[in-house]
Structure formats: C-alpha cells, structure tokens
Design brief:
12 helices; alpha+beta; 278 residues; 45% helix
C-alpha cells in the first residue's frame, strides 16, 4: 500500500505541485530560445539585444523591432474597460512624450555616434509601407501617419535604423454595437517600431533627396539627448543557469518533504519506486 501512496504522491506532485514551476520554466526557455534565434538573424545585433534585455516584451525579427503598448489614456477614458472616445486626438496631443522604446533607441544611437534626423508624418507614411504588424479585423485600423519619423544615419549618410510610432484603434460600436451616451467608444494601442537597414535602404533608393529635404523637421536631435551608459549596459541572455529554475530539483524537494524521504536525484527515486513495485 505504501508504494501506491508514494507513486500517487509523485503523480500529484508532477501534475499539480510542480505544474506552475514547470510551465514557467518551459515558457522562459522557449522565450530564451526565440530570443537567441532572433539575435542570430537580426540586422542590428546591438540594438536588438538591448531591446530583448531591457524591454522583454519586444518582438525582434530580421529587419524590425516592435513594442506594443496599451495607450495611456488618462482622463480620456470612459472609466469602463479603458475605452476612449477620441483616440486619434489624444494620441496626437501626446505623441511627443518619450516612451521606453524611444528612449532606449535614441540613447543607443547616441552612444554609437549616430545622427538622428526628425521628419514629419509624410516620411512616417513611407516607412510604414515596410512595417509588418498583425493582420487587422474589420473593426480595427492602424493609423500610420500621425506621428513624426526619426531616422538614424551613419557618418556616410546611410540610413541605419528608424523609429516610428503607430496608433491602433478598435471600434467597439462595430464589434458589438456598443454606444455610450450616443458616442462610439474605442480601445486603443500604440506601437513603437524600429525599422532596420534593409527596408530603409529600399526607402532611401526609391524616395528622392528632395522628398526628405522638404519633410525635414530637425537636422540632428542627438545634441539634446541625455544618455546613461549604465542604463544601456546589456544584460546576460541567460547563457548561464543563474536565473533558471531546476524543475527536477523542485519536484524532488517537494516529494521528499511530503513523504519524509531524502532522495538526491530523480533516478534514485525511480529506482526506489521500481524496487518497491517488485
């Protein structure tokens, strides 16, 4: 009877007690693997690694880094599920506020000696032709030409990276006929998007110099940027096991506590259970 109790305890431990730790470890390991794959193919290793380290929710691909944010709507909300009546107006009034993604991008550019030119929304519209975001539902819309564009140049005048901000709105009246006091409420999100070399070189080749000159707002904004080298110092990508959970040890420790045993490895425990079963 005791062996069945032990086996039952181990089963419960695996499926219940250790479930959260196991899933958490699995998710972390999968994310770590995805990050390493992204870094292996990205066109800007330095920029991509900093975004993965400092803003873990960032999505890195070969030619793009994307950060999705819930739009900080403040008093613009209806106090119901973070709805807003005029998301475009709010976005336009607040689009010059620095986000974490913008701060990280501009400081990285400054630290590596780049030049950043600021352009109006006409250039944003052209850059956004190269940006990939999730496919829209009929009630959703991307507003890609509301905010200015920022482009990093090297000393030879080549485009290296760019930063744009995009608004996404979801018309709730179109989803479920939701209307509040005669007004159409929206949910809104903003995207920080870093576009990298390949797409920018296509833009630079296809658009005329006159186009960029006519839409230029600031020749170089870097001089006004205050950066912190400590803030930009990359973190480890978990190449060691310092921050990883040893799921085997977690399960074993819990089993020992629950059953008054002192096994030091799962192999040892399995051999014991096999001997008891025989």
């Amino acid at each position: 009877m005791k062996i069945f109790v032990l086996i039952g305890s181990l089963a419960l431990l695996l499926f219940f007690s250790g479930c959260a730790e196991y899933l958490n470890t699995l998710a972390n390991n999968m994310k770590d693997m995805q990050n390493k794959e992204a870094l292996a193919q990205t066109e800007d290793l330095e920029m991509s690694k900093l975004f993965i380290d400092k803003l873990p929710d960032s999505r890195v691909s070969k030619s793009q880094i994307t950060m999705k944010n819930t739009l900080d709507l403040g008093k613009q909300t209806t106090n119901t599920n973070n709805w807003v009546y005029n998301p475009i107006g709010y976005f336009e009034r607040n689009m010059d506020k620095d986000t974490k993604a913008y701060t990280l991008w501009i400081n990285t550019v400054k630290n590596r000696g780049g030049i950043v030119k600021k352009y109006n929304a006409n250039v944003s519209r052209e850059i956004n032709n190269f940006i990939y975001l999730n496919k829209l539902q009929p009630y959703e819309r991307y507003h890609a030409s509301l905010a200015p564009a920022y482009i990093e140049y090297d000393k030879n005048g080549n485009m290296i990276s760019s930063y744009v901000r995009i608004l996404k709105t979801e018309d709730l009246s179109a989803v479920g006929g939701i209307v509040v006091q005669g007004k159409r409420p929206y949910q809104a999100f903003s995207y920080d998007v870093i576009v990298l070399k390949t797409y920018l070189r296509k833009l630079q080749m296809n658009a005329s110099r006159k186009f960029f000159e006519e839409n230029l707002l600031d020749e170089n904004i870097i001089a006004s940027v205050k950066s912190s080298e400590e803030e930009l110092k990359p973190l480890s990508l978990n190449n060691d096991n310092t921050n990883k959970i040893d799921i085997n040890k977690v399960m074993l420790d819990k089993f020992n506590v629950q059953n008054g045993t002192n096994f030091t490895s799962l192999d040892e425990l399995q051999k014991y259970l096999s001997s008891q079963a025989n």
